[in-house]
Amino acid sequence: MPTIYGVLAMVGTLPPSLVVRYDGQGALPTLRQIVTTIELPMRIALIHALKHSIVPIEAAFAKFWPQARLMNLLDDSLSADLARDGKLTDAMTERFLTIGRYATSTGADGILFTCSAFGPCIEAVARAHAPMPVLKPNEAMIEQAAAKGRKVGLLSTFPPTLQSMPPEFPSSIQLVPKLAEGALAALDAGDRATHDRLVVEAAKDLRDCDLIALAQYSMAPAADAVAQTTGRPVLTTPDSAVMKLKAMLGVTDA
């Protein structure tokens, strides 16, 4: 009997592992009929202001939610303009709202921002698109940190993060901010080893904290080295963000 393989994969709507079979009775099913009978994986829009965030967050999805369909939107002028202006502006918020509208127009089921220094801008996007989940990069990690410790070391490689992120922590948390100077510049130059070394060196000043929170997604690969050097538990943003977004969308493991 005739069999239809990979019809949807061929037009880019489903992964090739999904197969649609025809039993030979009656007319062949149309593509529209096939699409409407199969539930597509959820589409998640990942929005980045630093190119270095893409690999860590995709790795976290591969680990905790491999079925999700990911789309990456990168505008690295966002971080450059924030560093230049020194503060968030109404114009910056409007840029985020524009990006949010575009992500929504593609059929995204949820949006995850990976840029930690833009909290108020992301909150504006969340309000505009409620009740669709729109997640700030660090909010899941902050919830974990608040549950696990009273004195939290906040380690960052991007200076504006240490201005915008502390107000997101509960007032009951004693926050110790620390900048890993030069680490982001090293990463921009393609030197991951120097980036990680500078992150680990800066983390040594946080050894008296209950735990250490790594603010940037791009810092996640250095987490094990930070934990080994400091002897402190280390929280990273990508893993906690993926798990929270998955829960918000009601996705459970089969």
Report on the structure:
With 254 residues, the protein is α/β, with parallel strands linked by helices. The protein has three domains: 31 residues, no CATH class; 106 residues, Rossmann fold (3-Layer(aba) Sandwich), CATH 3.40.50; 98 residues, Rossmann fold, CATH 3.40.50.1860. Helices cover 43% and strands 14% of the residues. The protein is built from twelve helices and eight strands. The strands form two sheets. Strands 2-1-3-4 form a four-stranded parallel β-sheet, covered by helices on one side. α3 crosses α12, α7 crosses α12 and α10 packs parallel to α11. The longest helix is centred in the middle third of the chain and has 16 residues. The protein is globular. It starts with 6 loop residues before the first helix and ends in a 6-residue tail after the last helix. The N terminus is likely disordered.
What structural class should be given to the helix and strand makeup?
A: alpha/beta
Please estimate the helix content.
40-55%
How much β-strand is present in the residues? 5-15%
> Could you list the spans in which at least 5 consecutive residues all have pLDDT below 50?
1-20
Order of neighbouring strands in the sheet with most strands: 2-1-3-4
> What's the overall geometry?
globular
CATH topology of the largest domain: Rossmann fold
Q: Give the name of the CATH architecture of the largest domain.
A: 3-Layer(aba) Sandwich
End-to-end CA span: 32 Å
Question: How would a textbook summarize the main sheet?
Answer: 4 strands, parallel
Task: Provide the succession of SSEs.
Answer: HHEHEHHEHEHEHEHHEHEH
CATH C-level name of the largest domain: Alpha Beta
Please count the beta strands (DSSP E, at least 2 residues each). Answer: 8
Query: What is the residue-averaged pLDDT?
Result: 87
The number of helical runs is 12
Please state the CA-atom Rg, rounded to the nearest Å: 21 Å
